[in-house]
Amino acid sequence: MLMMKKVNRKDWIACIIITIIAVIYSDCFGILPIIASICMVYIVSGFPDDNNECREGDKKTYFLILVSTGIAYFIYFMIGSGQWNNGLVLKNEIIILPTYAILFVYVIPLIWLRKQKKLNIRKMFSFDKETRKISLLICIIYFYYSCAQISIYYIESSIISKWMPLHMMVQSFWVAAVAEELFFRGYIYNLLKKVCCTTYAQMVSSLIFTFSHFNLLIKLINEGVTVQIIINYISIFVLGWCSAFIYEKRKNLIPSIVLHTCVNDFFKYFIILGIQNLSS
Question: Which UniProt keyword terms apply here (predicted)?
Answer without folding.
Answer: Hydrolase, Metalloprotease, Protease
